[in-house]
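Summary of Year 1 activities. Much of the first year was spent building the evaluation harness for sequence design. The harness presents a backbone, in tokenized form, and records the residue chosen at every position. We chose the following record to illustrate the format because it has been used consistently in internal testing since the harness was completed.
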């Protein structure tokens, strides 16, 4: 990650880091200083386009019987944030997948993090840019996959909830799943996994519960950093992704954060957000306010821990 001139430039999309390291999120143009440093001519880079609007059309051929407009573009977490309707500054979503990805809308002015987060250009629509703070946790649901594929103590990931609910607590066991180091907000590539607090009475149920709880604790670390950078408390957290289906995890997350967890009816938010951007691009939806009204809650988890 390049961070030049006192935090002027930031990676905006991990999956396309080689491309976005050359992009200035403030001017919304390829950056001449970074191009010169890299020795990359501007004319080989693609034209920068907004997040929503007709970018191109497909050719008519045997596969496409008519030209189809390509009208939306976004990174996966940008799209998920858009799908969650996080259109006001201070709204936050977390995607519980193999990794965890928290995104906070910070409004039209970018905030350079002082607490281990990255500054992103969330989206640019109708000549208006909205920025975000992002915190990625490397190991989220992958901790459960390790129990299944590494330790082979479960056959299906869904079994973890059933095991965790058999015990009232972890029996003092804590699990730090730093299998590939720690990402936000620590950025420690040399950190490694740790399980502590075990006794002769530690059972598989305790370990399963500690693995689920590790996702909630890591989320708390990132959200605390976001609150410090943004300067305001977070009122609720919108969630999506496969692990958001875990009632145990969502309730524990609410307890650890002390705020409501809002799970929508649709949890595949990256795909939905991309569809919303494309739909706005062709005029199917006229505004973000119209899209906001599409968002429906399936369940709210209220904090219930002393």
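For this record, the design step produced the sequence shown next.
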């Amino acid at each position: 990650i390049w961070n030049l001139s006192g935090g002027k430039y930031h990676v905006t999309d991990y999956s396309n880091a080689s491309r976005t390291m050359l992009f200035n999120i403030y001017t919304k143009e390829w950056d001449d200083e970074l191009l010169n440093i890299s020795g990359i001519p501007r004319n080989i880079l693609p034209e920068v386009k907004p997040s929503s609007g007709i970018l191109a059309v497909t050719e008519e051929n045997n596969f496409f019987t008519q030209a189809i407009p390509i009208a939306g573009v976004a990174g996966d977490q940008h799209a998920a944030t858009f799908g969650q309707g996080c259109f006001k500054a201070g709204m936050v979503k977390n995607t519980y997948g193999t990794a965890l990805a928290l995104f906070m809308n910070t409004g039209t002015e970018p905030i350079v993090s002082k607490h281990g987060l990255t500054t992103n250009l969330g989206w640019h629509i109708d000549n208006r840019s909205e920025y975000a703070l992002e915190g990625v946790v490397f190991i989220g649901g992958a901790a459960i996959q390790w129990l299944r594929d590494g330790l082979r103590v479960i056959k299906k990931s869904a079994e973890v909830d059933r095991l965790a609910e058999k015990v009232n607590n972890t029996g003092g066991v804590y699990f730090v799943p730093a299998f590939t180091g720690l990402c936000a907000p620590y950025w420690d590539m040399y950190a490694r996994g740790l399980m502590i607090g075990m006794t002769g009475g530690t059972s598989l149920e305790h370990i399963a519960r500690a693995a689920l709880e590790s996702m909630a604790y890591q989320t708390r670390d990132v959200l605390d950093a976001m609150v410090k950078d943004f300067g305001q408390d977070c009122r609720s957290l919108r969630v999506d992704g496969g692990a958001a289906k875990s009632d145990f995890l969502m309730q524990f997350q609410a307890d650890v954060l002390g705020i409501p967890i809002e799970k929508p009816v649709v949890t595949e938010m990256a795909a939905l957000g991309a569809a919303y951007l494309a739909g706005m691009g062709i005029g199917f939806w006229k505004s973000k306010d119209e899209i906001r009204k599409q968002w429906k809650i399936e369940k709210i988890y209220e904090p219930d821990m002393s």
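The radius of gyration is 21 Å. Quantitative recovery figures across the full test set are reported in Table 2.
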